[in-house]
Write a structure and sequence with these properties.
This protein has about 375 residues and is an alpha/beta fold. The protein is about 40% helix and about 15% strand. Helix 9 links the parallel strand 6 (about 195-200) and strand 7 (about 220-225).
Length: about 375
């Protein structure tokens, strides 16, 4: 205890308030705990792609395995070049991340410190707040009526110490989206010391995705985050990227780890970038199955938040109890207590058989 005390006197005091991010419960861990066959467990907790990874990515990664004794390209040149060409940007506008989460962390390293703050919606992706806490910064949480970002209220919450505003579009865990006009207004009207960060992890599912690239070309204080985890199905590789003007990217490039995007991830991401067939299959499946689940939940009298993403937020009375009850039946969902929604669960859209299984087990629990 003596050594522990001495160690802890050197720990940043603001870290005592930081609660580590809770990931979706893994299948293998659930199987061990409950004595179940892993093959009988359905995981609908982490918004993963039910169709699996892009086939093009798998082929590229197999070839890349033979070179995994060599350090990856620290600049990520070919992947960044391909992203830039696809979006009509320059390679300097692209920063790769160990998942798009790392882009959030890099922005924190560059802009946040004790005394500064970020602004996020009350029910937005919890990692924004965690990354602020990591730097000793405050998170101003703005109410989101009907679980939808109120961008004007977020703009009105800006203080002289605000450095970042985070907008997830569509938002996790609510699945709601904001309009292109609302985003343009926010970006055009924020003061010069504030950077607007738009998290587009689920943007491929949007009916009318906004064009934010124009703001980056113009050089405004905007960062757009995207990932290969969702529609490309590469969540296990941890590869994402940020799009931003060069006056921001050069600072993020300074503070990132030199090999933050590994060789296998770069190869898989590059191959998946133009796998339009896999993307279209994924988006089509999600939209079709989401409609079926929404209709079934309405029939059951379960309140849902209309979603533009690959998951649904639903009110079940006691989220933790429902999580545990479904877990006992081999169905893993996500309880929402950490999002200050103790009565809710979030369920990823899976394959048709997985979704039917979830609905079957949910009905049983609701009857009890």
């Amino acid at each position: 205890m003596h050594l522990q005390h001495h160690f802890e006197t050197g720990v940043h005091p603001w870290l005592s308030q930081l609660t580590p991010y809770q990931t979706g419960k893994p299948i293998d861990e659930t199987a061990r705990e409950l004595g179940l066959d892993p093959g009988s467990i359905v995981k609908l907790a982490s918004n993963e792609n039910p169709l699996g990874p892009s086939p093009r990515a798998v082929e590229a990664m197999k070839k890349a395995l033979e070179k995994c004794h060599i350090y990856p390209d620290g600049s990520g040149y070919y992947l960044r070049k391909a992203i830039a060409e696809k979006l009509g940007l320059d390679i300097e506008n692209i920063v790769l991340g160990n998942g798009s989460n790392e882009i959030i962390e890099l922005l924190g390293h560059v802009l946040l410190k004790p005394g500064t703050n970020i602004i996020a919606a009350e029910h937005a992706f919890v990692v924004y707040k965690l990354m602020a806490q990591l730097q000793g910064a405050e998170c101003i949480e703005v109410p989101d009526p009907d679980f939808r970002h109120d961008l004007r209220a977020m703009r009105q919450a800006i203080t002289p110490d605000t450095r970042l505003i985070f907008v997830a579009n569509p938002n996790n865990p609510t699945g709601t989206a904001v309009t292109s006009n609302e985003l343009d207004e926010l970006i055009m009207l924020v003061p010069h010391w504030v950077t607007v960060v738009v998290d587009e992890a689920y943007y491929e599912f949007l009916e009318n995705p906004p064009d934010l690239i124009k703001h980056i070309r113009y050089g405004r204080n905007v960062v757009v985050m995207r990932t290969f985890s969702k529609t490309q199905g590469l969540a296990g590789l941890r590869i994402g990227y940020g799009l931003m003007p060069t006056h921001i990217s050069r600072w993020l490039q300074r503070v990132r780890q030199p090999f933050n995007a590994n060789l296998i991830a770069q190869a898989g991401a590059l191959a998946s970038l133009n796998d339009h067939e896999h993307l279209q299959k994924t988006v089509s499946l999600i939209k079709s199955e989401r409609s079926k689940i929404e209709a079934a939940l309405r029939d059951l009298g379960v309140k849902i938040v209309p979603s533009q993403a690959n998951f649904l937020l639903m009110e079940v009375g006691d989220g933790n109890a429902m999580f545990r009850a479904l877990l006992q039946q081999g169905v893993i969902v996500r309880a929402m207590e950490s999002y200050k929604l103790p009565a809710w669960i979030r369920v990823t859209i899976g394959l048709p058989a997985e979704n039917e299984r979830f609905l079957r087990e949910l009905k049983k629990v609701l009857k009890k």
